[in-house]
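Supplementary Methods S3. Input chains for the assembly prediction are listed below.
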Amino acid sequence: MAIAQRLERLRHQLAEKSLDAILLTQPETCRYVSGFTGSSGPAATLLISQESAVLATDFIHFEQARQEAPDFDVITVNSSSQRFTQLLSGNGKLAKVGFEANVLSVAEFRRLSEEAEKARVDMVPIEEIIDCLRAVKDEEEISCILRAAFIADTAIDFIATEIHSGMTEKEVAWEIEKYIRENGSEPIPFDIIVASGPNAALPHAKPTDRPISDSEPIILDIGARWKGYCSDLSRTLCLGQITKRFQTVYDIVLRAQLSALDGIETGMTGVQADGIARGVIDQAGYKDAFGHGLGHGVGLAVHERPRVSPGSTDVIQENMVFTVEPAIYITGWGGVRSEDTVVMRNGKVQPLTKAPKNAKPAEVC
Amino acid sequence: MAIAQRLERLRHQLAEKSLDAILLTQPETCRYVSGFTGSSGPAATLLISQESAVLATDFIHFEQARQEAPDFDVITVNSSSQRFTQLLSGNGKLAKVGFEANVLSVAEFRRLSEEAEKARVDMVPIEEIIDCLRAVKDEEEISCILRAAFIADTAIDFIATEIHSGMTEKEVAWEIEKYIRENGSEPIPFDIIVASGPNAALPHAKPTDRPISDSEPIILDIGARWKGYCSDLSRTLCLGQITKRFQTVYDIVLRAQLSALDGIETGMTGVQADGIARGVIDQAGYKDAFGHGLGHGVGLAVHERPRVSPGSTDVIQENMVFTVEPAIYITGWGGVRSEDTVVMRNGKVQPLTKAPKNAKPAEVC
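Predicted structure tokens for the full assembly:
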């Protein structure tokens, strides 16, 4: 049902761009359009025209593709270079075919071009079509992300009762991951971040053997996955006595986040949405301490469109799902980040993650 | 120490190919050459010439890069499009710069070309240099892979004592993953495969809620990760009474694997090495049932060079690490795969994974 609708939207785009067909290889996009869950790495190549939908895969994935993508004609190819030949040749109807310029490598494109020339097909670079389709979620997708968000929320509740001074970052991360996996999540969408003290100044820190202590910031950044769909959630905790500096920074970040959650509306661009939170942080005197965008789309990939960041012209639309995650990072001291996954409903932000936003674990749960 | 040697080998290659510098973005390659462990996704761009080594990253990764890549000048860039400008401009010495044609997307290359034109730099597509350097491991790398192999071996011992009829594939997979993670592994390099009965006919099956039963094939394909380096190991088990068909297929696959482990020598091409195992399977009457290559290189990536498969002209060299994994798949019934990670030493194969190869779990442990 969902697949039929997605194919219809895609075909509408093809007609608009005067394309006879589109060639797709990006794994999450292939899953989105066909239902084929593939594996790690590119396992399928799709060719979709107004009349047909073909999925080319190798021997390894043939059975799986047939079961998962009933709306597609599944064919096998012996090697990845052959897939272009088999898909393009013998189809006299194709004159202009789109390809994902942001996905195909230069080397792959060179091979594709050779085959396209033989088949007299003009390959047209397409960057936006699929990413923009995927950015607006249907109800089924929103349900999946909500479920993934729920699992992440409960993991925060859980760890709030378990975390204590002396545990290492790695131990905390593994406790969270086990909880997430044992409460319904598929393999998690990204490595969990537990960053304590000075490590919290690294936005993408990896958990270390550092024991966490009282009175320092501890950033938890976690996600779960349900039927392929991701959630993304950060909270910053502080065990024991909260220092004045922590409280000050925490309050600014929280204020920035609440302003964005309250102020973002459909029709805004990414840079406008980002600016709401960034303005609060700048005004509080931390102008250079928030060195990444406010957020990013979340779906089958944990980072997708829309971009909610300085310079982004992406327009926030109804049923887009993305993160709102302002932060302040201070080298040597640490950092604070507060992140929710949200959906646009009736023109306004509706959070899908709902874990409490108190820095004291006891108050979190 | 290792980094200095790798840079030296790379610079030797640059001189051989008459390149002034090379631009690198592939995450595992960046880690290999610089020590920077990055994050998921491309976080760094390296530019290496005879005189200098520069690592460009964003604000998010700056601190981490400075700590992890002391042999590099670390610079920050505000956006990924700016990295090319900053790296190429103002450096009048560069006339010919190599780039990874199999890594950069068509869209990225378009942006790179614009900057290269402004800076009067000729960009030269390079596909092989780095992949071939990475294919031959140094002692430090082999130690890491051995440790990852050891963890996978012990996970097979462990699950042999736990697995029983009625457990679902997902339950078995999760027990294995927990064991691997709690015994020293970093996040595992690929989703564990537990494929039972007919599911074992899908080489890359995902674990399902299917309960495993007696007298059917159960393929376990698992890996661990140590300091970034992967292992890859498959065994096929059978609970309860072993059927005649299982025993027949199992014996052929095992014979094919032992022939390859015994027969592969340095100087052979990938297709020759593959042919040793494939010949055994073909002769036994299962010609079309082994539908993938015999193996693939293993290192920082779980799939890298050399390719050990039909059509591969890669030459097997001393200190290459790769898998040897013949298999037979029969639609409707299932399959058998036996896989080891091995290293070439003194011209011959030396297995790094050593889990027993008995189909009966009781005999495995």
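The CA atoms of residues 20 and 93 of chain B lie 8 Å apart. The mean pLDDT of chain B is 93.
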